[in-house]
Amino acid sequence: MDCVKLVFLMLYTFLCQLALSSSLPHLCPEDQALALLQFKNMFTINPNDYCYDTISGIDIQSYPRTVFWNKSTDCCSWDGIHCDETTRQVIELDLRCSQLQGKFHSNSSLFQLSNLKRLDLSYNDFTGSLISPKFGKFSSLRHLDLSHSSFMGVIPSEISHLSKLYVLLLDLGSNNLEGTIPQCVVERNEYLSDLDLSNNRLSGTINTTFSVGNTFRVINLHGNKLTGKVPRSLINCEYLTLLDLGNNMLNDTFPNWLGYLPDLKILSLRSNKLHGPIKSSGNTNLFMGLEILDQSSNGFKGEFTRKNFGEFANHEGN
Question: Are 181 and 189 in contact (CB under 8 A)?
Fold first, then answer.
């Protein structure tokens, strides 16, 4: 009888401990909290920082998300942090327009957060900082936004290691990226849907090959110093809805073959060195889904007509 009571007592104790442990909060790993605090301390806060979205034309709320990060609280509760509900690993970091100012070092503690799936550092001031090759170590990353943050230098080829990337934003209100567009950024990221490298100082030809079966929906290379021809491999981007090649130095004839892209809605070719007659090669079914076309400030001859290209909702001519 005593043995039975002992067994029940042990079982009761075990169940109580199990219930107690399940009721305790699951905190984020200590090493990740420490890495985040070290990252915070690398920067000062600029309360005068102003964020303005040039695309939407609206102000972005600016406030210092990292100010209230401290070791006395669970880092999963910190502003801008999102953790996996089961493992409590940090998987999202959103510091968009957080008034951060300072040098972004290549050995930043941020790179210790190996489980990140989403990283947004846009609209901060990292003037003089290079884009570290270590960004390529975030093997689970699906969204990367480094735009409007005054990064400079070349785009590291290691970015191509982010094989799960869906959205890559390296655009610029204030980035100063130079060099050519690395072929591997496009060719090795099979899930990439949005590529924005606009308003930088990228030069050379667009020698990237857009492979058959890619999932690009947005390609924005506006405002660089790109030369040469419009790459014919763009015809493989069958899901493309927006293509902006404006404000470059492309030297080519009118790429009427882009009219075969069924989902293309916005096409900007403005302010290049494009030239020659505008013609549809006899196919009146080109550009059927196009809503906005801007081919102004080029050397084209002729006009876009409904007979040749269908009807456009909005059209900017020569």
Answer: no
- Give the separation between CA 144 and CA 165, rounded to whole angstroms: 8
CA 78 and chain centroid, separation: 23
Low-confidence residues of the chain, pLDDT below 70?
A: 1-26, 54-57, 171-174, 280-284, 304-318
* Cα(116)–Cα(82) distance, integer angstroms: 10
Give the position of tokens 């040098």.
103
User: Nearest CA to 99 among 36, 60, 45?
Assistant: 45
Percent of the chain with pLDDT over 70: 83
Burial class from Cβ neighbours inside 10 Å (0-12, 13-18, 19+) for residue 148 reads buried
In angstroms, the CA 282 to CA 153 distance is 45
Query: How would you classify residue 279: left for phi > 0, otherwise alpha for psi between -120 and 50, otherwise beta?
Result: beta
Residue type at position 56:
S
Nearest-angstrom CA–CA distance, 148 and 124: 7
Interatomic CA distance for residues 51 and 65, integer angstroms? 14
Whole-model pTM?
A: 0.84
Token pair, residue 186, equals: 């496009």
Encoded tokens for 184: 């591997």
Of residues 151, 152, 148, the one with CA closest to residue 49: 148
State both tokens at 156: 């590291």
Q: Is 121 helix (H, G, I), strand (E, B) or coil?
A: coil
Helix (H, G, I), strand (E, B) or coil at 202: strand
Angle at 198 between CA 193 and CA 203, to 5 degrees: 110
Q: How far is CA 270 from CA 30, 47, 208, 250, 317, in A?
A: 52, 37, 21, 10, 9
Asked if 161 and 187 count as a contact pair (C-beta separation under 8 A), the reply is no
pLDDT tens digits, residue range 246-281?
999 999 999 999 999 999 999 999 999 999 988 766
